[in-house]
Specification:
122 residues; 50% strand; globular; four-stranded antiparallel sheet; seven-stranded mixed sheet; 0% helix; mainly beta; single chain
Length: 122
């Protein structure tokens, strides 16, 4: 059974940084992609980035390109979303999800973590 657990969210001031972790079990990254999504209050869930061995890393919203990066620690079965130069518009619940292929669309992912809240505010 695929399981994913996010951690690392919190309150940060504008311009600050956070690193979110997605710890996973029940699958390997040789066969699955991990996507990061976020959902702000009153908005639809949107894709942030996705990584797979076959397609590499794709970052979707122009607003996060150059600020958000993905890394992995295969020994710990953990993927990280490093978020820099945070702005209030980055405030959202952040999720990681897994499925066979990368996609921007949340409906293409069947396994989800519980989410972690990120709040950017002074």
């Amino acid at each position: 059974q695929l399981q994913l657990v996010e951690s690392g969210g919190g309150l940060v001031q504008p311009g600050g940084s956070l690193r979110l972790s997605c710890s996973y079990s029940g699958f390997t990254l040789r066969n699955y992609a991990i996507g990061w999504f976020r959902q702000a209050p009153g908005k639809e869930r949107e894709g942030v980035s996705c990584t797979s061995d076959s397609s590499g890393t794709t970052t979707y919203p122009d607003s996060v390109k150059g600020r958000f990066t993905i890394s992995r620690d295969n020994a710990k079965n953990t993927e990280y979303l490093q978020m820099n130069s945070l702005v209030p518009e980055d405030t959202a619940v952040y999720y990681c999800a897994a499925d066979y292929l990368c996609s921007y669309y949340p409906t293409d992912f069947r396994s989800w973590g519980q989410g972690t809240q990120v709040t950017v505010s002074s």
